[in-house]
């Protein structure tokens, strides 16, 4: 019997237009009502948890997060624990405390940002649960792509200066490829940073501490809750979900998942445009 369910957000619970359907929300509610601990496991920062899921506890404790929507009010109690920034943090939003954290060393973050200055990249970061974007063009693109979920983003003029002067640690850095060669150039740079890990998508690379992963975060949460591996399930679509698959007993890949994840999966469900995550929860978890 599954007791802990970790679900990725983008590409899994959210469709290609970054929307989460009523059917998916209803199925996650059903899972929570059945006594399953439902955990969003995302590369996003806490402030950018999809607004239709974000519980009031999150919204009241993130500066500039805005008013709680009716959906968020309806979904209070849907989840208590959140894995954010690709496993840099596991947060108990009820007790307002972190159960797990693995931050990028500030010296490494500054050195990486300096070495990337000559590469055509868009630069963003997660710090203090916020999503920081260098340059107004990225802020505009963020609002166009993510809509209300991008309501808590914050513009900064220079990311290196922001990291250098901030009293907060870096949860994650993201670099968007602005040229055909940018992907290979930053891959070469990252080879010189063994203390960091990276997960690539078609458009950007996510960089986090070597000890941070959705897998390590999920394992830490399962240990905290006293839940065994065989009682844990996860659903994902991307390269950053591979470590989570190693920590879960039941591994479900989306129909739109990358080939590596499909190879590691026990089950392949429908795509994110066809409520594949909800289908898998109903067929393989709620009916078990």
TrEMBL record:
Segments forming a coiled coil: none
Keyword set includes Hydrolase: yes
Cited CDD domains: HAD_Pase
Keywords, ordered alphabetically: Hydrolase
Any GO CC annotation of this UniProt entry: cytosol
InterPro entries linked: HAD-like_sf, HAD-SF_hydro_IIB, HAD_sf
Pfam families in the cross-refs: Hydrolase_3
GO MF, one annotated term: magnesium ion binding
Protein name: Cof-type HAD-IIB family hydrolase
Lineage start: Bacteria, Bacillati, Bacillota, Clostridia, Lachnospirales
